[in-house]
Amino acid sequence: EVQLVESGGGLVQPGGSLRLSCAASGFTFSSYVMSWYRQAPGKERELVAGISSTGGSTNYAESVKGRFTISRDNAQNSVYLQMNSLKPEDTAVYFCYLPAFDSWGQGTQVTVSS
Q1: Per-residue pLDDT tens over the stretch 16-63
Q2: I want to staple 79 with a disulfide (CB 3.0 to 4.6 A). Which of 49, 65, 68, 72 is the partner?
Q3: Phi, psi dihedral angles at 113 (to 5 degrees)
């Protein structure tokens, strides 16, 4: 059974940083693309970043380029999202996503507010 468990969310002031983690199990993690999505209140879920199976290729939403970094550790079956220079508009529930299995984590809340 595929399981994706996010952690690392919380309340942070504008300009601050957070690092999200997603622990994966139930599949061969190193073989698959992984992604992070987010959903703000009243808005549709949107892609934040994606990473190839080896970590050699990444892509980002325009709104987070230069501020967020996606990475993975295939030995730890984990994918990460380092978020710097956070803005209030980054407030959302952040989800780990495995496209090949259309599987989602439960989400972790990120709130950027003074």
Answers
A1: 999 999 999 999 999 999 999 999 999 999 999 999 999 999 999 999
A2: 72
A3: -160, 150
Q: Would you put residue 37 in left (φ > 0), alpha (ψ -120 to 50) or beta?
A: beta
**pLDDT tens per residue across span 22-31:** 999 999 999 9
Between CA 111 and CA 90, with CA 71 as vertex, the angle to 5 degrees is 20
Rounded distance between C-alpha atoms, residue 97 and residue 106, angstroms: 10
